[in-house]
Amino acid sequence: MKEALKNNGLSIFFGLIFLLALLGQALTGQALFNEEQIAAGLGEISFAQYVTSSSFAVDVSENWQSEYLQFLLYVFATIWLVQKGSPESKELDKTGLETDEDQLVGQYSNAKSPAWAKVRGWRRTLFSNSLGLTMGLIFLLSWFVQSIAGNSAYNEEQLKNFQAPVAWPEYLVSPEFWNRTLQNWQSEFLAVGSMVVLSIYLRQRGSPESKPVGSAHDDTGTTG
Q: Contacts for 73-81 with beta carbons within 8 Å, 24 or more apart?
């Protein structure tokens, strides 16, 4: 048990703080929602009703889709693009998909290589792109959920204000939908870009996201 906790400490840590943050968001979101209900002369709702509401669903999904878009773009951009001096970049002469030998596939695989890395054809192709494809699928699904839940939440507000609801296709091109979307995208792009550039000149001892403290600023693709 102790060894399992040590070997999986990073995923356990982030899993726990994710659940705590999600619970906190649900509790504070319910409180805020009920404040708005009372101000509008409407009844309060229970915690169970709130976490199954379109209001909660759109708030969660719009954050998820922007996070996974960030990862999706980063996974694919770092195949071809490099940044001199950054540990977030590959070495300057290793752009592209790299050779089979570099990637340990086919005849260059070893005993510990995953089974689909050893074979040819669609299975290797699928496995070779499985990370990006999964990130892309989660992004698209969460963005779709955001659009459905956002449309429902928007229409609830429309009805409260005695205005006509809008259809889903109309909502997809509305300022409301794109404002929710782009305010998350811009912050994610800024965060990734900052990490790439700041890690050229700044260090965090012991972190694999940083270069070794004594590395030169122009050392590229090295981690501590």
A: 73/192, 74/192, 75/131, 75/132, 75/135, 76/132
Tens of pLDDT along 60-115? 999 999 999 999 999 999 999 999 999 888 888 888 988 898 888 889 999 899 99
Residue whose entry in the numeric block shows the structure tokens 């510990």: 112
Distance CA(128)–CA(208), nearest Å, equals 23
Same domain, 112 and 210: yes
Tally of domains in the chain? 2
Q: What is the pTM of this model?
A: 0.86
User: How many Cβ atoms are within 10 Å of 150's Cβ, its own excluded?
Assistant: 25
Same domain flag for 15 and 35: yes
Amino acid type, 197: V
Residue 59: Cβ within 10 Å count: 18
Identity of the amino acid at 126: L
Residues 18 and 117 grouped into a single domain: no
155 found inside a domain:
no
CA distance 28 to 57: 14
Range list of β-strands (E), 87-149: none
Query: Which is nearest to 150 in space by CA: 165, 135, 136, 162?
Result: 165
79 and 121 in a single domain? The answer is: yes
Q: Tell me, yes or no, whether 207 and 112 share the same domain.
A: yes
CA–CA gap between residue 142 and residue 222 (Å, rounded): 34
Token pair belonging to 58 = 């759109």
CA distance 195 to 79: 17
